[in-house]
Amino acid sequence: MRSKLIARLCAALLVGEAVLILTSWILSATMTRGVRSLLSDEGLRWLLGGFTEVMASPLLVWLVLVLIAAGCFVRSGLSSVTRSLLTGRRASVASYRDRVALRAVLVFLIIYVAVVLLLTVIPHAILLSATGSLWPSPFSRSVVPLAAFGVAVSAAAFGVISGRLVSLTDILEALTAGLRRGAPLFLVYILAMQFAASLRFVFISGQ
């Protein structure tokens, strides 16, 4: 079901890009003001020469980090244990190693959050902006990496302590599991970013 939805979304974005290219050419040919053609010399240079710049967005980095964290969270078993605790099925967390692993993760998260708070809430903290605000600031730009790092490390630690991840290979597979499952999202990202950038080029940048 999810694969069909992603496939349809990708198809829709491809069709939208094709329609936009044709529409921009027609509107440009009719001398419509404020419209640039993607089939003109300028448009082709932008399409081919600016593709890398369009793709090089913080969103791509955030997508990679979130997939790594989510995959490790699931693969390590921390997601199922957490879900059991949240739904009240504490009996499923019966093993001694699971309880020790949960305590270790909790201690790590407390320390991690405390360190992040020290870098943000105290006056003249490192992650505050020059004016002392949180937004925009180095903290606001790093909130996704910080959260992803905390989740990934916590999940990996839980997997190792609980015995679910017993080797470096297991840890590597856990850290890359989300990237494998989320690979179709990269195609969606590429098509969506290109379509959005094409819209800006045709209708906004030309004004």
Contiguous runs where pLDDT drops below 50 for at least 5 residues: none
Reading the helices and strands in chain order gives HHHHHHHHH
The helix count comes to 9
DSSP strand content: under 5%
Keywords:
mainly alpha, elongated
Blueprint (SSEs and pairs):
Layout (H helix, E strand, L loop, with lengths): L1 H28 L11 H9 L1 H5 L2 H18 L2 H9 L9 H23 L19 H25 L5 H14 L1 H22 L3
Helix pairs in contact: 1-9, 4-7, 4-8, 6-7
Structural overview:
- The protein is mainly alpha-helical.
- The protein has a domain of 88 residues.
- The chain is 74% helix and 0% strand.
- It has nine helices and no strands.
- Helix 4 packs parallel to helix 7, helix 4 crosses helix 8 and helix 6 packs antiparallel against helix 7.
- The longest helix is centred in the N-terminal third of the chain and has 28 residues.
- The protein is elongated, with a radius of gyration of 23 Å.
- The model has no long low-confidence stretch (mean pLDDT 89).
Short structural summary:
This protein is an all-alpha fold.
